[in-house]
From TrEMBL:
Residues 788-819, 1319-1399 are annotated as: Disordered. This is Fanconi anemia group I protein. The lineage of its organism: Eukaryota, Viridiplantae, Streptophyta, Embryophyta, Tracheophyta. Residues 288-369, 555-789 form the FANCI helical domain. It holds the Pfam family FANCI_S2. Residues 791-819 have a biased composition (Polar residues). GO terms for molecular function: DNA polymerase binding. It comes from Hibiscus trionum (Flower of an hour). It comes from the Eukaryota. Residues 150-284, 382-537, 1090-1325 form the FANCI solenoid domain.
Amino acid sequence: MTTTESAPPPPLNDVDIVHLAQRKQPSNSHQQTNVSLPPFLLSPHSHKHLLSYLHSRAASPSPSSAVCEYVTSLLSLISLSPETPAVYSLLSSLLSSYTQIFPSLPHDSNSFKTINFFNTLLVHIPLEDLKLVIDSVASDLSAVVTVDDAQLFDLLPQCFELIRNGEEKGGDYVNSVVDKILDSQWSKGFLLKMVPIAKEISFLDKVRGKEFLEKVFMGIKNVDLMDLPSLVYQLLVLASKGFNKREIIEGIVWFFGSESCSKMASTVRQVEGTVLLHVNFAVKQDPSLGKEVMGLVKSDLGAFNHFTVAVLLSVSRVRRFSESSMVILKTALLTAYRDYKFTKECKWIQDDIKEEYLKSVKVIEKSMLRAVNESNYGREHMVPSILQFGFILLESAEEVNCKALGNSNGLLSIEELGIQILKTLFEVHDMARNETIEQIKFRILSLKPELSRPIIRLLCHLIQCYPYPMLEHVPRLKELLDYFTFMDGKIASYLVSALLPLIRFSRDLRDYAILVLRKAVFRREDTVRVAATNSIIELILAEKQPKGDGLFSVQDSSSQASCSQQADIPCSMGGDLFQEMSALLQRCLYQQAKVKEVLYQGLVKLVLADPAIGGLVFDFLLPHFLQFFKEGLDVQLGVNTCVLSENGKVIIQEPLDSLLSCVSWILLLQTHDKTDQLSDSIGACFGFSLSQENEDVRNRSTEVFSSALLKIRKFLRNANLEDILGHTHNDSAAAHEEKRKCCALILSGVVEVVLNTITMDLEKATDEKKVELENEIIQFVDRHDSFAKEASTSRQSNAGKRTNLRATPNDTTDNLDSSNTKLIQEHTPFLATSSIYQLLLIALKLHSTESSNIEATSQNHSQSSSSKASTCFKIVSFALNASLHHVKSSVAMGNEDLVKKLIYGEINMLGPPLLRLTLLLKPGSNVATSQKKKESKAKKDAEERKEHLHLAFLCLKEMIAVSLCGSRLTRLLENLLLVPELKHADLHDECAQASEIDDQDIRNKELFIRKYLKPLLTDLMKLSAFRTVEILCDIVLMIGHKLPSKWTNPHGAWAIHMCKTNNTTNSGIAKSMIRLAINLSSSPTDLLVVQDMLKELLKFIGSNNSNSSQVSEYLVINQSTASAIASCLLQITDTVIIDMDWSTKKLKTASQVAHKTIHQSQNGECCSGFAFEENVYSRVKAVVELLSSFVLMSLNDSQAEHFLRLTARFYKNLAQISKLRIAPKGHKQLLPSLYFQKLVELTCKELTVPLYNFVAEMQQAQQESGSGKGMINKIKRENKCIPELIFQIEDYEKHLIRLSKATKMNLLKHAKRSTSRDFKILDPTTTNVAGQEDGPNNGGHGNDNDNETCSDSKDDNNGGNGSDKVLSHEEVESETDAAAPTVKRMKRSGIVHDSDEDC
């Protein structure tokens, strides 16, 4: 275009331009883009007219379409020749005008189309004009309300790129615009627009990126609900392009998991399902996002909420992250439980920290349950993951024992949580039910028995809560029953018990279960037979329970047992199932003794559930009973026929004592009225009435059993021992002896059955009758003692597989271990709690009578007095042994077991008579001091009393332990506090203080300790009752651990006083008292006490100790007890180091979280000074002082090895703590706290330096001790400990060197170079020559240390002058190589060096 035009081109109006654009539009892709334009458009003078047309159209009634039509037409003409100067000048003016009129235009698809057209031509606009456009667009963000209002911002990304690439300082201008936008207020519409725009802006740095995300997540709260899924999707797209991935994931999780979002839960959860689908899709497209999700939960449990759980469950549907997501969820839950369990039991952790961990567990539990409860809101893709996770929790139930935690503070156990998750899934999602039942079936059959129990409990819950839906899955349950005979016996029985509620609804399932049990009874394996017998009893019991809805009318399914015996299955017509199964139960009477015991116990359960069935049970048992009981001139009790000899082994074929126990209980429970009612009901069921003859037979069976028991009772009381035991023929001497022991064992059980019957009668008898019954009890106790002596070695025989109640006090164990539990489960006590209670009362009565009659007894009646004393001791011994066995066996019985309620009842009623008997048996009571007998007899009686006292306290200990497990301790203590206490000088004041405590639970514990335990322990310490004192200490500890530290401290101070004032040479007593003193003292007093004791211990086993006549401040510490106490204190130190292991892991987690927030802080020390961290440092400092005392002792071999191992673990923790003080890359290095510096100094001076000497002395002692076989094994063990210890010390010092370099502080000025090596050969000649060559440089350890590690000083006095100089890593390595030139040492040095690179 020239400037010498003669006349202006003819003008074109806006309509002409639209028509022209339509004609000029290319028809195909091969047409040239540069097409000649009308002269009017090429003239600069026409720009004004062209822009006026724009404004006129903007003022029209429908400006949107009019402006869009005109502008797009004009832009299409311009795009035909965009390189012409006049054209791009017109383009700049047009864009500027359009941005000015844009606020007045409707913001719709037309405007969006126009702006996109402008976006394609921005490259032809001058940069200065672009800046004007940017300034115009970004000038007033307040006008942007909706997303359409921000359409012009679509121009910014390309404008920014053009300016950044076109100008040298274009980046500064662009950054200033971005900062202006970030500093302004964003509306929700602008926020929604900026997120998709941000993915096109590639030049944002991390700081501006974080500011941008902060604006987004601060404004996301105001975004409309329906806009959330698209916004999250755009954020995920942004993250997939590498834009602050972790921050975006954190922000999304924070928003949907925050409390503000939870308040809108009813609406937000409707879109959360869509959001989770977006997350799932994004992870599939970009796996790195999945890694960020995993890393977020791993690094910070504080980010754990219900949406985090949902995200992990959603991501787990991606095959790549399926396993890792489940592992992270499981680990997070288990870690929370373990941490809370640890903090709850740890006394040095502050209460506020314990509350934090409790809150953390609750948050995780609620998050998981909420994620599952909301799984029906568009989250069906998560159902398989939820199902998998629920079963993972059930399989993990044994990893953390949280049952005790679940009973308090409103927590669930892991098992309960897993069951709750799967129950919710079963209820909400129909599609998950088939898979749930299939998984239950598969896991019961494939898992170990201990792991399959939670799965069966889940099945039981599903059947109880959802019986109707479970009826649809009966075929699968029948398939599961087919494997009954191949399962573990207890699991098989447990499975049938779980199915019982459903069996009551399904006749088909019931008939199939009966067929399976019929097969199982005929199996060869004992465990299968026992399980089948148990299951048959449970099946009959289930029928006895009232039916809730009467829904026993479910039609039989077509699926029946594929067995030839199918036609023989009895079809019940509403009659009694016991009669239907009686033939099968009859088979059990001809099997092993275990099966019979289960059957007899089951029959008692049946009568308990329905006493009217007692007559039928007697009819069932009578023929079998008459095989062993013969009536004639003399009663014949066929005990010999109960024992058989097979293949040289003697076995008990018939547990006659269990049979008689069953009969006696049924006689007590049976009522004749109900029996009559039962007869009528049975006759009506079958359409006929029982004849008088049948009724008489039934009554006669009851009379036979009642009469037989009375005759057996009389026979056992009057017959001599040989007549009762009987004689065996045609047996060898050994077999005869074994049979005799087995018979005695059976008869002792029979006597217990008789005693149980007599004591039941004693409760209802008159005073005259009571005297007669008490004398009879005494006779039977004496008879029991005779049988017990005969069977005393029966547990070593093949027949002695049942628990022997007749154990002596020496045979009893202080702890109820697993083997004892197994024995107890096999044999239920024959004596009820009420019977043992009566026996204890009789023992108390006899003891009191003997006490009052001793002084009145003359010398002529000394023999009679001795006999009475012997009888009293037998009663006491029997009652205490029965009590101990009774309390221990109560743990093994289920809480809902009918027999447990019958036999055990309220077991706490045994407490008061036990405590009264304990007070009477205590040496120094009236009974003990008033006896004036021969010296030998008095000594024997005193020993017996000590044994009985020990047994009585053992019973109390077990009873308290059982009450603690069942949360029944408060009730037990209330009963015990009713017993009159001992008379002590300061007892009244102490009890008065405890009585003022408001909390009843604490008050009862305090009163019991002060009124009974402490006075008893004080008295027994003076009387040297060693075994009893140990039990008392255990009882005090058990109760003391349940008290707050406020109340345990006084008891700890009392125990410390006892250690100082009581001199004993018994190692067990010394260790018990020391444990009591330390465990009852709160932190930090407990470790201060240990330090004081170690200082006193050095007087006796110090390395330089030669005087064994020294006296300790703690009298329990002396030459006789020193070694045992050293081992005890080593164990206590070991437990403290175990606490350090946990606290170090928590410090690491806290440090990772803290570095995110404090690395930009100017005062980093203030920010990172956690109270927990200082608490840990103080604990570590105390451990250093403890170990520094051990290192000065002359420990024996096992103690020294233990010390080296725990010291190596301690240095490993120190290395981790030091490593945590080093800031990660990109973070500001903080100065170590003064507390940490003092800890490092103390460790180097008090522990590390003496430790090297300790190791050297150990190795020297090895060389001087010879080379025997024992010494060789000892050296081999220590050769594993010492290198590990040296490595951990060097690793710790390596991290100190790195920290010193980073902080410019000399932390190793007190360190000593490592010279002790188990593999270093020291040649005396070489050593002397080296010493002469070194001269003054090696004058002492302290100077050598300062010179070679941290400073240039010549001695210790000026060692601090070089504190500003930090030893480099290379210098340390050169010194290390010089000190140990061997190949092995070089390799170890290389390992240390390589680990430095990983940090």
